[in-house]
Amino acid sequence: MALAGVKGSVTLAGILTLPVVLADGSPFPGRELLIFLSMAVILMSLVVAAIGLPFMTRYLADDLPHDTGKDDIGAVMTEVAINRLNALLDEPVEDPSEQALRADAGNMLLETYQRRLHYNDNDEGQDVGLELAKRARLEKYMQREVIIAQRQELFRLRRAHNISDITFYEVLREIDLKEESLR
What we know:
Number of helices: 6
Number of domains: 3
Protein name: Na+/H+ antiporter
Low-confidence stretches: none
Keywords: Membrane, Transmembrane, Transmembrane helix
Distance between the termini: 41 Å
Order of helices and strands: HHHHHH
Transmembrane segments: 33-56
Largest sheet: none
Shape: elongated
Number of strands: 0
């Protein structure tokens, strides 16, 4: 009954509150029929919902309007990111060492966004999406392998007593955070 929904359960509960017998001892007329009808309605609604809804949703999904804006917005957002990165790279910085770091980080990000823009503009469609997915999986695999190697080296350094416990736990925490960000 709990699967039948609130309305069906309330209907059945209301019918079950009818007395079994009247004051004179005779059975309540039609009580069994009311219970049967409410249970039949509950079961029919479950069967219709379980069988009918999957068919209806399959055909309705094709009729829904497609939001083409989301397809176009990716390229717009990528262009905004590229423009902002270029502006950041053009800003003067007092410290020359910070300028080199800023240029390095900015150029790496800029390359990523330009590659994304190239893939958005490319007409190869599905093949480009598959290539991006493969690349992402490969990058994630390589990052995990790097983390494993770093963790092994960290434990080797600790066993050799080349680093303190505090340093060990700080670096281990950083490695764990990197690993967690890959999930």
